[in-house]
Amino acid sequence: MVPGCARGSDLSALAARIDAALPQTQCTRCGYPDCHSYAQAVAQGTAAIDRCPPGGAEGVARLAAIAALAVAACEVDPQYGQELPRGVAVIDEDWCIGCTLCLAACPVDAIIGLNKRMHVVLPEHCTGCELCLPACPVDCIRMENASGSLTGWAAWSQTQAEHARQRHRARQQRLATSPAAPSRRRHPSRTGRQPWPPPWRARARAAATPENCLALRTLPSGSCRRRSPDRHPPPAAQTTSWFARLRWSDARCRTPPSPGCARPGQ
């Protein structure tokens, strides 16, 4: 923690210096939504300096020097991850379904693609944050080693960190200014309201009497749907309209016969 935290402009300046010393992978392993939020927490003294696995031991040493802290060992806290070689996400073309979930998960917009079309990762922009892995519903994304045996800041340059910071800020600005997506019409059973069955379905259920069912089953196959009422008048006298009689035939085809509706010859 940062002892005797500054306030006001001094706190902002300290947070900016700490943010500049972070690798800007935006991996959220530190427990904060992005590197800038983690830098502010370190400057305020509410977060430790050993929560950044992408920065590794060198990153801990950098933060300790900026925050004027004496640390016994410059190591990353194991509960936040391990210092590993930098990886790059790769999408398997044969398994990608084009769900666009990885596009929303990427913090630097390093994945491009359209709905129901194959997606591609731009390796020059990928920070290896691995946030796209749990977002993929078909597990078609894998991480490939991009730095060999190098880890931490040895596998990541300050130029790459600044590039990642700019892309993350551009993404935040785009999301803040883009209009909200239109809400989808949800089924009334999910909103607490009464479902809206079509009116003809209710009339078909009400008119499905044993006499009507028997009369409809005595007609030739398909004659109810393709012939006009003049050429083939309805046999049931209780009906109200030809449209309702057609719907009764649909209900007869889609639902099993009700008790008492015996087939002809039974």
Q: Can you describe this structure in just a few lines?
A:
38% of the residues lie in helices and 5% in strands. It is mainly alpha-helical and 266 residues long.
Topology:
Blueprint: H1 9-20, H2 35-44, H3 56-67, E1 87-91, H4 101-105, E2 111-112, E3 120-121, H5 132-135, E4 141-145, H6 158-177, H7 188-191, H8 199-207, H9 210-217, H10 223-226, H11 242-254
Antiparallel strand pairs: 1-4, 2-3
Task: Explain what you see.
- With about 270 residues, the chain is mainly α.
- Helices cover about 40% and strands about 5% of the residues.
- The chain has 11 helices and 4 strands.
- It has a two-stranded antiparallel ribbon.
- β2 and β3 form a beta hairpin.
- α1 packs across α2 and α8 crosses α11.
- It starts with 8 loop residues before the first helix and ends in a 12-residue tail after the last helix.
